[in-house]
Write a structure and sequence with these properties.
2 domains, three-stranded antiparallel sheet, four-stranded mixed sheet, Ribosomal Protein L9, domain 2, 7 strands
């Protein structure tokens, strides 16, 4: 009996897969527990459409990530910070602040966990950081930290 799994089933397969199981297992366990549906023409068509939709979403996300990477590569982000003791930076510049600056300057939404810093930014200067936009697609950005002007 051919069925399409609606959930991951240990020993049978993952969600969305078309698998061949014994008639008894399919009728007595998978179908009543709503873990699978019988692979008829309608459900096969739905599976095919779902796979095409998923592939299309991946293509669109990849294209968008490549465009954003081209826009960001080599750019410099200027950030200001308060001066602490001895002319050092008061506190530190975090990936959350960098993500907010990317959103403000380039209108690109980046999760703070996708910004990779070599080390913490705790002093003034220029630092390199990597922004991961999608699987296998990233951009190199420079972060320039300067003193905040006091009035």
């Amino acid at each position: 009996m051919k069925v399409i799994l609606l959930q991951d089933v240990k020993g049978s397969g993952k969600k969305g897969e078309l698998v061949n199981v014994s008639d008894g297992y399919g009728r007595n366990y998978l179908l009543p527990h709503k873990l699978a549906v019988e692979a008829d023409a309608k459900s096969m068509n739905e599976l095919k459409n779902a796979e095409q939709s998923k592939q299309y979403k991946i293509e669109v996300a990849t294209k968008q990530a490549k465009e954003n990477a081209e826009k960001l590569n080599g750019q410099t982000i200027k950030m200001t910070g308060k001066v602490g003791k001895g002319g050092r930076l008061f506190g530190s510049v975090t990936s959350k602040e960098i993500a907010a600056e990317l959103k403000k300057k380039f209108n690109i939404e980046v999760d703070k966990r996708k910004i990779v810093l070599d080390n913490d930014i705790k002093s003034f200067g220029t630092y390199n950081c990597e922004v991961k936009l999608y699987t296998g697609i990233s951009a190199e950005v420079k972060v320039m930290v300067t003193e905040e002007e006091t009035k």
